[in-house]
Structure prediction request, 256 residues.
Amino acid sequence: MRRKNLSGIFFELSILTLVVLGALAPNAYGVVPADIAGTWSFNSFVSGLKAPWWERGTLTVEPDGTFSGSGTDSNGNPASVSGTFSVSSDGIVISGADYADAPLCRMDSGNAVLVCTHFSEAGSSNLTIFTKRTPSYSMSNLAGSWEASTLSSGPAPWWAIMAETIYPDGTFRGTVNLSEGSSTSVSGQLSIAPSGAITCLAGFCPGSLDSFTAFMDQGKTVSVGTGWSIPGREALFSIMAKQAASYALDDLARCD
Prediction:
């Protein structure tokens, strides 16, 4: 079955006729196009008719919402992308003539993580998470306590939750709980590039060593990755969140 690559997912964006709603004025959603400006890494994961499939790449977004970038899909196909983000009262919208519906995106309060969902024209469900980049990263940004959630497309779908401690040299130790009920101790070593791209060098990894890559956000507290699983061709989507010392219900509060 043909899997849709970047040129297919974003072809519509090259012919967009969007105008940026509200220009630089605030809207009911509380975001303006300038909030999206910057360099973003993205990971996409598909379930449904085109699964298993994933893609990742980089976008540069201008203050008016226009963007351009490049990426690679799970088949290794490269593509260039371009288009426009438009801000409405409901969120951040990417629309085009060939979408079954317009992707709707939501931004976190720090303007560093952008989450988008939509159906493709073939009926597949798509989830894309963008993480805004900071100018540079170092190994020390990996150090700390992290929790990760990983989702696999199958053919026998599964998920896993991992709690780990990462040390300044990139080595880590932790525990993984799998959806089938088992739990095991894990260890390994990670590396991070100046661009914020995280790869697994050895030991337990969310995906195979030669396919899995995650991107860290500019706040250095969230990392999102995609790749193939170690046994077989199962697409993986993984999100890591850095843990604080403690949490309270007030941390859930948000004022738009």
Remarks:
- The chain has two domains: 6-132, 139-242.
- The longest strand covers residues 38-47.
- The helical segments are 6-9.
- DSSP finds one helix and 17 strands in the chain.
